[in-house]
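The data layer described in this paper is built around a simple, fixed record for each protein. Such a record has a labelled line for the sequence and another for the backbone structure tokens. For reference, a complete record is included directly beneath this paragraph.
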Amino acid sequence: MNWYKFNRMLKRPPIVLCLLLTTLIFLSSCATGPAFREIPAIPDGKSIACFYRPARFYGSARSPSIYDNGNLILDGLTNGGYWVYPVSPGKHIFSAEAAILEGSNVTVNSEAPGEVYYIRMDILAGAFVSGAKFFRVYPEQGEQEISACKLVE
């Protein structure tokens, strides 16, 4: 038996195994619901906040929770996912569980019922940790970007 070839064969499986595990982690952290079609009917007297997170490799294993004025409203926005939240009139401060960066929150003053707010979540890199940050985007941009997302169930 050629020990050199046997030794090389033993060194390769860890690399293949690492690549396989990385792929499985990435695929398991993606949203699995139905693809975005259209915004549902807006409830009477309310507006809608559409939260979405474009699919990206960086931060794909994280699923930060979303809070409205400190109250949990979604337990994890997965990579490539979206979620629609009915908003009552008034001031709403949306924040993420992993919001470690200053200015990570988004404030929405819902004054007129029937409005649609698009809020994108990005995972930003830090030196030792990463954090979630919200961005309120224009409706045209939000409609385009959310169309590639799947519903978080």
